[in-house]
């Protein structure tokens, strides 16, 4: 995300390119989006797009629950 945004890619476009687009290409309707019925997978980024936490299948796997917004 940092590299794409630093190269001038809009944040929303970079997020879609890293999430929904690959899921769609692989035919995986339950990944790539946060919505009811989808897997509870997410990466939480800080203000500098550093990873603050990773949620996989609803369980935090990297760092504790993310800190409050700065």
Describe the protein's architecture and organization.
The protein is of the alpha+beta class. The protein has three helices and three strands. It has a three-stranded antiparallel β-sheet, with no helix packed on it. The chain starts with a helix and ends in an 8-residue tail after the last strand.
Topology:
Layout: H1 2-6, H2 11-18, H3 20-25, E1 42-45, E2 51-56, E3 59-62
Antiparallel strand pairs: 1-2, 2-3
Supply the key terms:
70 residues; alpha+beta; 3-stranded antiparallel β-sheet; 3 helices; flat
Helix content: 25-40%
Global outline: flat
Question: Helix tally?
Answer: 3
Query: What percent strand?
Result: 15-25%
* Alpha-beta content class: alpha+beta
Oligomeric state: single chain
* Major sheet description: 3 strands, antiparallel
Distance between the termini: 19 Å
- Please provide the count of β strands: 3
Report the mean per-residue pLDDT as an integer.
85
Radius of gyration: 13 Å
Tell me the series of helices and strands, N- to C-terminal. HHHEEE
Order of strands in the sheet with the most strands?
1-2-3
Low-confidence runs:
none
């Amino acid at each position: 995300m940092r590299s794409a945004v630093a190269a001038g890619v809009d944040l929303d476009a970079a997020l879609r390119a890293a999430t929904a687009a690959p899921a769609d290409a692989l035919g995986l309707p339950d990944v790539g989006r946060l919505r009811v019925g989808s897997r509870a997978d997410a990466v939480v980024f800080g203000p500098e797009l550093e990873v603050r936490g990773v949620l996989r299948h609803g369980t935090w796997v990297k760092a504790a629950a993310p800190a409050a917004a700065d």
